[in-house]
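Dear H.,

Thanks for agreeing to be a second pair of eyes. The structure we're designing against is below in C-alpha cell form, covering all 147 positions.
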C-alpha cells in the first residue's frame, strides 16, 4: 500500500514536472517568435532609413536645387553696375542722434564706477597703491599671455 501511494506521488510529480517543462518550452517559443518579429521590424526600419537617406541625398543635390531655382525662381545675375566704389560712400557715418543730445551709451560708459570686490588675478586698487612699483609690475608682466 505504501508503495502504491509512493508510486502515485512520484507519477503526479512527474506529470507536474512535465507540465512545467512544457510551459517553459511554450514561453520560450513565444519569446523566440516575438524576437524574430522584432528583428524583422528592425531590419525593415533600417531598410526604410537607408531608402530615405538615399532619397534625401538625391533631393539635396546641388545640381537639382540649381535646376529648380532656375525653373521656378526669377533670379537674375547681379550686374557689375550694381556694385559701387569707395568714392561713392559718405565720408562720415550718418548721425542717428539729434544735435545737442548726448550719446546714451557714452554717458553710461563715463559714469562707470569701480567694483567693490575684485576677483581673479587682478590686484585690489588699495594693494597696488601700497606695494612697491617693482613688486606690482612683476606679477602683471608674468600674467600677460603670449606676447
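And this is the sequence the design step returned. I haven't edited it by hand at all.
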Amino acid at each position: 500500500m505504501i508503495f502504491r501511494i509512493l508510486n502515485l506521488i512520484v507519477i503526479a510529480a512527474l506529470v507536474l514536472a512535465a507540465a512545467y517543462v512544457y510551459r517553459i518550452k511554450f514561453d520560450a517559443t513565444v519569446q523566440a517568435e516575438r524576437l524574430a518579429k522584432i528583428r524583422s521590424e528592425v531590419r525593415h526600419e533600417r531598410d526604410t532609413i537607408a531608402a530615405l537617406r538615399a532619397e534625401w541625398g538625391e533631393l539635396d543635390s546641388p545640381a537639382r536645387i540649381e535646376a529648380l531655382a532656375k525653373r521656378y525662381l526669377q533670379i537674375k545675375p547681379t550686374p557689375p553696375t550694381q556694385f559701387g566704389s569707395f568714392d561713392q560712400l559718405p565720408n562720415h557715418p550718418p548721425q542717428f542722434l539729434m544735435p545737442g543730445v548726448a550719446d546714451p551709451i557714452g554717458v553710461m560708459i563715463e559714469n562707470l564706477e569701480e567694483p567693490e570686490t575684485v576677483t581673479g588675478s587682478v590686484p585690489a586698487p588699495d594693494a597696488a597703491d601700497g606695494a612697491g612699483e617693482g613688486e606690482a609690475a612683476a606679477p602683471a608682466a608674468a600674467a600677460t599671455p603670449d606676447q
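Two observations from my side: Confidence is low (pLDDT under 50) at residues 131-147. The helical segments are 2-59, 62-72, 104-110, 125-130, 133-143.

Warmly,
E.
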